[in-house]
């Protein structure tokens, strides 16, 4: 890409975008040019902040005309390098496309911009007595467009699956600059090819997601978080099977003693107070009744008897649930 081509590209866009929507200062290039991997030095040429799907179309059409490579960017919380601009590309940040529409109570859907923060979508659903179940340690900064582009699973994946299951419709700008509106938000939809699923998980290689219609569901019952000390890696799946047979699992997460050491030091957390073992498992289980509490204790005792589990701790309050989750959620950040 020549400097002349870049200048012409930017000049063309300035006729349609606010002055602050195109930035080339070093701090912005460094901040928006990479994700959490930090393995590659970012070398973006510019960062553009579209405010609408039409803006994204203009950017793509101008990029085609001047042979400019584009990198779509969400919250950049990924760990795969998908949002890194290391070869002079222009970054297209979706953070201005952060609108959150009204919740449709009847259809149990919500329409949001690609730049909507995951936690904000969860709060919008919660305000209407509904639940958006896709969740991450990075929910406070990850964006819906990036979640969809990576087909993210998150910490509730064992109960609710990847985000693919929760996408009712998409608005996408293709590499040619065409705008596609995919899916009609219908539970029963037999209208032919469902192109949503090509774009979900495509990491921006087929087009840029600008808006999404998401399914919502009823909130789960009360839950309890349990952390178990496991002596052997081979026993982790046995523990999973034992608990899944009797309880509804919201989450099942594994981490090592090495990861625990890092996150405890990084976040200045108190020791778990469990017998030291090489491996640990964190479970979040639904607790709608006294019977489920008894089933939880039965599962724990069974795992101890089998020698799969050495020790365990269970949350007794919402505050303790959040504390126990920190030992898992802080691992990527601490590393």
What would you say about this model in short?
The chain has 335 residues and is α+β, with helices and mostly antiparallel strands.
- Strand proportion, as a percent range, falls in 15-25%
Compute the number of helices. 12
- Helicity range: 25-40%
Largest beta sheet, briefly?
5 strands, antiparallel
The shape is globular
Radius of gyration: 23 Å
Mean pLDDT: 92
Low-confidence stretches: none
As laid out across the biggest beta sheet, the strand order is 5-6-9-7-8
Please write the string of helix (H) and strand (E) elements.
HEHEHEEEEHHHEEHEEHEHEHEHH
Total E-strand runs: 13
Class by SSE composition: alpha+beta
- N-to-C CA distance: 35 Å
How is the topology of this model organized?
Blueprint: H1 3-14, E1 22-23, H2 26-32, E2 46-48, H3 53-66, E3 70-73, E4 90-93, E5 100-104, E6 109-113, H4 118-126, H5 144-149, H6 157-160, E7 167-174, E8 179-182, H7 196-199, E9 207-215, E10 223-230, H8 236-246, E11 249-256, H9 257-266, E12 279-286, H10 290-305, E13 309-314, H11 318-329, H12 331-334
Parallel strand pairs: 2-4, 3-4
Antiparallel strand pairs: 1-2, 5-6, 6-9, 7-8, 7-9, 10-12, 10-13, 11-12
Helix pairs in contact: 1-3, 8-10
């Amino acid at each position: 890409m020549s400097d002349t081509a870049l200048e012409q590209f930017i000049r063309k866009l300035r006729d349609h975008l606010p002055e602050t929507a195109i930035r080339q200062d070093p701090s912005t290039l460094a901040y928006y040019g990479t994700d959490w991997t930090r393995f590659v030095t970012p070398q973006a040429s510019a960062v553009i902040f579209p405010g609408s799907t039409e803006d994204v179309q203009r950017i793509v059409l101008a990029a085609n005309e001047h042979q400019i490579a584009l990198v779509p960017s969400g919250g950049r919380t990924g760990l795969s390098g998908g949002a890194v601009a290391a070869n002079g590309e222009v970054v297209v940040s979706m953070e201005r496309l952060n609108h959150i529409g009204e919740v449709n109570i009847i259809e149990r859907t919500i329409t949001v911009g690609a730049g909507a923060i995951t936690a904000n979508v969860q709060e919008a659903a919660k305000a209407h007595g509904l639940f958006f179940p896709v969740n991450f340690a990075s929910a406070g900064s990850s964006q819906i467009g990036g979640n969809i582009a990576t087909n993210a699973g998150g910490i509730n994946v064992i109960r609710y699956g990847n985000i693919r299951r929760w996408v009712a419709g998409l608005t996408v700008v293709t590499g040619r600059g065409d705008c596609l509106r995919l899916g009609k938000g219908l539970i029963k939809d037999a209208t032919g090819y469902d192109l949503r699923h090509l774009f979900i998980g495509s990491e921006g290689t087929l087009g840029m997601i600008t808006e999404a219609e998401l399914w919502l569901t009823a909130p789960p019952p009360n839950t309890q978080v349990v952390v178990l000390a496991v002596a052997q890696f081979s026993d982790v799946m046995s523990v999973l099977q034992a608990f899944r047979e009797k309880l509804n699992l919201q989450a099942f997460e594994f981490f090592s003693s090495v990861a625990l050491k890092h996150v405890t030091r990084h976040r200045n957390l108190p020791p778990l107070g469990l017998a030291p073992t090489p491996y640990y498992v964190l479970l979040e289980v639904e607790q709608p009744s006294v019977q489920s509490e008894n089933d939880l204790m039965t599962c724990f005792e069974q795992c101890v008897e089998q020698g799969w589990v050495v020790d365990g701790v269970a949350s007794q309050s919402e505050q303790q649930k959040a504390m126990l989750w920190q030992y898992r959620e802080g691992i990527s950040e601490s590393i």
